[in-house]
Design a protein that fits this description.
alpha/beta; 2 domains; four-stranded mixed beta sheet; three-stranded parallel beta sheet; 45% helix; elongated
Amino acid sequence: MFSFLKKTFLITILIILVGGGIFFFSRSSTSRNPTPPFQKDWSNISGWFADNPQLIKEWTNHGFTYEQTKDWIDVGLAPDESELVNWLVKEKGGNYANSEWILNYGNITELKKQYWQGKWRIYQTLKITHQEPEYKTYPNPTLPISSVGTNYQELERGHLPAGSALITDTLDGSNRGESELSNKGIDFIIHACPQPRSLFNDDQDFINCVVKSVQNSIILADQQRLDQLAIPLIGGGIFLGSCNPKKLAEGIVTGARRQLTHCQTLDKIIFVDFASPYFQLALDRSNQVTDYFGPPKTLAVARGDIRDKNLHGASAIVNAANTQVKFGSGISGKIAEQVGDKEGIDKKTQQLIKEFQQAIPTE
């Protein structure tokens, strides 16, 4: 009897040990990091990928493999046209999703034109209704604000509606004193007022808001009877979040181009790239279908410091502001360094925002 119990006990211990070993081995095996996949050399497809590694991420984020990317680029598309390919595959579909069919039967130029026409339709021209609060200050003059196409019914105190714009001088906000910008011939700052990417559900909603703020900036420049306007990458920097800056630049160029065709005096927009050529790439793509964009107006790209008038030649520059229209960091901070009185301009913008909010109909 004792021998039987002893054997049973030993067998039980053995089962526990073996089972525990299997469990440990299983846990160890599953928790071990998998071997990373072989990283292919994308520069074999194009040298662009070596110089701009973010392009690899753009293709893979759209779900394209190395081989698929190579097939599309071999067709004649550029490494920075993953968005266009994504449109062909997911929106056009059918034969257009097949790179070999495109090569043999497709018309790349016509397809690019269709793609940009679609973008053109997204960013509608803003049209003043004169029902906006800035026009409701009679007998006082119209406020130097443009809120066309925005939602101004529910605003936090001290904020302009997202997508609006406000214009000031480069002195103290009341045309007094002097400034480094003014001495260089830059007399106006148009403060574009989008919200950061983090407050939107997706990239396109964020881009729409940025584009609207740029279009309202263009309206103010035209009302000021300016002939040239310099625009940086509004919505970049800390505002950008996870949004693709190339896609943002394409939206700004397209929306600005459309708004410009309806201006009376503003005849030239200079997009100012700083570190990366996002505007240059976007404008190059847009110019491929320039015949679709109506009356000829001048669009150009400069690369450097927007505070340098010799770079762009405009007497007005757009500031990447926020809805409180106070100077901050990034481009806004750099512009603030060369105004006459930063606090004076901030005080003026707050006064204008207060007057704007008081003019909003209560019913």
